[in-house]
Amino acid sequence: MTPERYGTMARMAPTYDHPGEQAAQDPIRLLEIRDTPLSLDEVFRAVGDDAAGGTALFVGTVRNHDGGQDVGALGYSCHPSAQDGMRRVAEKVVGDFPVRALAAVHRVGELEVGDLAVVVGVSCPHRAEAFEACRRLIDDLKHEVPIWKHQRFSDGTEEWVGAC
Questions:
Q1: pTM over 0.90
Q2: d(CA 150, CA 129)
Q3: Three-state DSSP class for 108?
Q4: Which of helix, strand or coil describes residue 89?
Q5: DSSP state, 83?
Q6: Backbone torsions φ then ψ of 140, nearest 5 degrees
Q7: What is the pLDDT of residue 46?
Q8: Rounded Cα gap, residues 12 and 60, in angstroms
């Protein structure tokens, strides 16, 4: 293996001489939008793979402030096509990285400060690939999937924040 530049991190170029170095045949294990609490453990279990040397998770939580204002309440809603959009994003990530397993769940409905809003996970043969694939997954979900956040601030104002 020889070092090559990948984003801002150096990584080893995989040799693909072992099946575990390649993407799995069906790596998309869990994709859901739900109105019930999310589980980090569920996503972690979904992306478990014996051939993965790296597993990366991202957990998005509801924070108590945004743009200098205190958030009093928050809700998420989505377009009926959001599930299909999640699949398109996941398939693109799987096509661009040697993904062994991928999972993403997003919450809709009313949430409280500290609640999990989104949990994504990716496992790959190596850690650099897992980090980069996970980052791409969450970034593209936020930019391409029609899920909207309705923030209500403690001063009585509110705003809608669109994912795409």
A1: no
A2: 33
A3: coil
A4: helix
A5: H
A6: -70, -35
A7: 98
A8: 29
Nearest alpha-carbon partner for 137 in 101, 102, 109: 102
Alpha helices, H only, 5-97: 40-46, 82-96
pLDDT in tens, 36-62: 999 999 999 999 999 999 999 999 999
- Asked if residue 70 lies in contact with residue 64, where contact means CB atoms within 8 angstroms, the answer is yes
Q: Which residues lie closer than 8 Å to 12 by C-beta, 6 or more apart?
A: 1, 2, 3, 4, 126
Query: Across the strands, what pairs with 123?
Result: 55, 101
C-alpha span between 65 and 158 (Å, rounded): 12
Residue 158 tokens read as 């509110």
Helix, strand, coil shares, percent, the chain, to 5? 25, 40, 35
What residue type is 67 in one-letter code? G
Give the separation between CA 46 and CA 63, rounded to whole angstroms: 26
pLDDT reading at 94 higher than 80: yes
